[in-house]
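Obj.: predict assembly geometry.
Materials: sequence records (below).
Method: joint structure prediction, all chains together.
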Amino acid sequence: MNLLLLIGIPLVAALAVLASRNAKQVRWISLTGATVQLIASFALLFTFKAERAAGNTAQMLFEQKYALFPAWHINFHLGVDGISVAMILLTSFVLVAGVLVSWNVEKMTKEFYFLLVLLALGAYGFFISLDLFILFFFLEISVIPKYLLIGIWGSGKKEYSANKLALMLMGGSALILVGMLGLYFEGGRSFDLLKLSQMNLDTSTQHILFPLLFAGFGVFTALFPFHTWVPDGHSSAPTAGSMFLAGISMKLGGYGCLRVATYLLPEGAKEYANIIIILSAIAILYGAFATMMQKDLKYINAYSSVSHVGFSLLGIGMLTQTAMTGAVMQMVSHGVMTALFFAVIGMIYDRTHTRMVADMGGLMKVMPFVATVFFIVGLCSLGLPGLSGFVAEMTVFVGSWENADAFHRIATVAAAMSIVVTAVYILRAVGQTVMGPIKNEYTQLKDANWNEKLAAILLLAGILAIGIAPFWLNDLLKPGIELIMQKLASVK
Amino acid sequence: MMEPGLYQLLFISIALFFIGVYGFFTRRNLITMLMSVELVLNSVNLNFIAFNKYLWPGKMDGLFFTVFVIAIAAAEAAVAIAIIINLYRSHQSIDVENAEELKY
Amino acid sequence: MNSSFYIALIPLLPLAGFILLGLFGRSFFKNSSGIIGTLFLLVSAVLAVYVAYDYFSVSATIRPREIAFTYTWLQFSDTLSIDMGVMLDPISVMMLVVVTFVSLMVHIYSLGYMKGEERYPAYYAFLGLFTFSMLGLVMSSNLFQIYIFWELVGVSSFLLIGFYYNKPSAVAAAKKAFIVTRFADLGFLIGILVLSWYSGTLDFNTLIARLTSPESDQLKSAVTSSFLGLSGLTWALLLIFMGGAGKSAMFPLHIWLPDAMEGPTPVSALIHAATMVVAGVYLVARLFPVFAISDPAALEVVAWVGAVSAVIAAVIACTQTDIKRVLAYSTMSQIGFMMFALGVSKYGGEAGLGYTASMFHLFTHAMFKALLFLGAGAVIHYVHSNEMKDMGGLRKYLPITHVTFLVACLAIAGIPPFAGFFSKEEILLAAHENNPAIYWIALITSGLTAFYMFRLYFSIFWNKPAHLHGEKHGEGGFAMMLPLILLGVGAAGAGFIPFGKYVSTDGSPLESHIDIGISALPVALGVAGIVAAMWLYLKPNNRSEKLAASLSGLYKAAYNKFYIDELYLFITKKVLFNLVGRPAAWFDRNVVDGLVNLTGNTTEAVSGGIRKLQSGKVQQYAIYFLGGVIVLAVLFIYVWK
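Observations (raw structure tokens):
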């Protein structure tokens, strides 16, 4: 399969959106583009599986390489492995759902959809890039639309949030850029990921570059203490913006931490693993406790995202095969879950015009569909078996436990304690919004309409697909993680 | 009549230049400021011609530059006057003090 | 054995019912969903009985832990994986029958009890989900599989307790139940991690084999490693037991069970009396070889937790006035019996009597406790109140309920020849032989049991004459009476099943142990309890108030459940929320985010200073420019030459 298709479809869709004449056209064009992209992602999954089944054990499949700046050894180099395929699928799910829940955006519809598709384009490009230069290029492409989406279509103190988000992410990008240039000059003037992975950089270089790259990508994925853009950004963003931000954008960071920082700089990873573990364990527990005190649904989910994404970073920091698999699973699982969570919060907000937990109650009675979905996604968040969160978290726990020393054990137990705190805040939120006596002003509200239902069902399908049958995801990720582990094992 | 020497020409050029600069700094009227800029430009033109004639009499570079400067000065004047007219329309004045808010 | 297909159907049918009713119940099966759910379960129950018949009768000897089939669900690493499987051994087959039978009874009963409810389809869907999860739990072949279904029963319990979701007290109770058990599950999860680390497997058969043979490296490393003075194995087993204690409402994790009575009464009968709450007992029984052979210290803890829970719950039950709460504490007390029966047992042969007795009691308890709850449901249905003071003299109005309730009370009080007598005798015998202290606690508790059950019985059906306001509807239809009668038959006759022949620690059959010398004392105590209850509650009188007044301190403490709820409330509300949650949120907003904003503000302040230069005055710029040119000129000419 030609990977150019994955960036071609969004590009065409974005241009078509620009060329279209009215809001209706815009919506349908975006939806068509997103759906085609979803189909393409599934096609990628199946062709990928078929290739692997046919015995193709190359590290990256469907590679393509075009020279961009031959003098500087910059190539347009594309290719995917299991991890990228999983991420691409995630992006497609969130994209379709995001387009669907934004159906009622009236203000500057064309620009809104254009930015959504552009953001997705950046994410797709990021996940299939094998050259750090274009990887960085696509990463930046995905930052700007977020700024505009929050700044223009947001709510509350949107300018503040948009600025904060853009500045913090740009700060992260700056760190990444420095780290990348370091790799370029130390690694024999090449941005090529595969080539760089063959290099053995000397230890001191790795110790300098790793924190730059990891912290840089860490900002994107809400690494404690660089996570404060998350609550503000999410709470001000429009629904689809939050979905993309938490569902895709935070995963760009996690993917970068794994693929660029850890894979290319194994000695650095080993040196800093304990710090990562400490930071992520703090993020998990402290995020969970902070969530407990929030009153606004979006803040609740934003802080809970900090806590959940902590599991990804914890898994990476544990440096075992199982934990890393769990980390990637958590990225995928959290992406789908949190997108759905924000979608549902958006649906509730559209109807009740409040996001304050205390102001709601008994919504199950008037909108059973929305309430049920909210309940299910809450259960997913607190790690109920049969839904995706459980699989990912358990894999991280089991993998973490493989490190037999007291430090790792304590960190794991601390992280595990969050499952109780998560239960507390999720049940509090769910109990007060969808259960309990209904308020008079809400008795006339309507349940979800077709586009919202479709979006929710799509994302629910994703949650269930991972939760009920995790083995396919496990098999998909395994070879990619194994390579990273080999690289880690090859150094002291 | 005596042909002017290089020094005389340079003297006039310097005088013109500083008259222009002085005018640019002190006048509040945008049109006058534009005229001052023209003076500065013309002093440069004079320099070009003078150096061309006395230092490299066989070459034409200085003359060409002068022609260029005149052409660009004309264009610049057109743009500047357009801006000034717009300013006048919105502010009913062409005083440079009133154009301060352009910084925002 | 080539029967895996229909065995898998047993849990899958209720699941199918859940999916069907959950998705389409509201639109297509508004009124028929009860019938549909019941039919699914009927097939399930028939299959379960067939499996049990097949298992116990066909082969001559009892086959330990037979795996019907497994499927690798999630491969963690080379050694650890979650395999979804079906394991048949005597206790899982016994549980299959219990769960499907009681669930079927409750399904039928609810046809009458829940009729006309607005969320009737949802109710049956949740029942299906619960039954599926519980069946999956008992058939688990893998430690992690049990955890998965463990969580699923927890959530079904949440859904059913909170079934009347617009009642704030129901929502609070549901939350409490979930969070308390979740806290216990944290221990369970860590226990699984520890145990799987030492044994290198999650599969029950391998795990038990490795951790019970003294020569195995796994056992050696588990026993020799130590953390805070306890061996790794003890930690693992205690943590797993913590999970069991949470689910089985053992002291001090029992606080959720009485509140859980907010759910519909049939649900209490199914989940909070007969099946889910015994999951903890089942879990310990499942790992019993490891406990008994390799780590008697952990088993000792199990025994004492069970005994303490039994007696505390019995004391509290004597003072409660809400009939469902009395039953809830009674459940806790009876589960305490099962727990300490396991705790005092040893592995193999006659010494394993406690294990057999525990499972036997689990079996009989399911019958009579489900019956008690369903009977209480019929009473509540009739008088529309849970409080004892609103009842009395109902024996004429509710004849069938009265008789079956009496049978159940006699059974739980341990009066021969009802079912409870046999199982309780075996438990007491096992305790008598192995742990005298626990034996005496158990004796007192069984006397108390008789007292509070008959207090309940007399208060409902005798005492003051009935004062019924207006409407006199019947006892409830055939659907509600049939389960009562069937369970009544079970409660009366289940004791005659030669249980020891089928269920024992090592598979060798045990003889029934009814010894007149040992039995006389508990039966006499039971009768004494009944007589005391009769004296106090048969007719309206003020003796009970006087008694309560004379025991005022103890009575008040017991009435307030020994203030354990308040203690928890203090820890969660005051300590966790105020001392952890609030500071964390404050720290994040003010310190971490404050630093971010500080960076922003500093930049802004600096640029604000620089901005002043940008005045907008063109001529000022020109002067700066000129100044710059002059400075540069001077520099070029005189300094840098």
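Conclusions so far: The CA atoms of residues 546 and 552 of chain C lie 9 Å apart.
To do: check interface contacts against the pulldown list.
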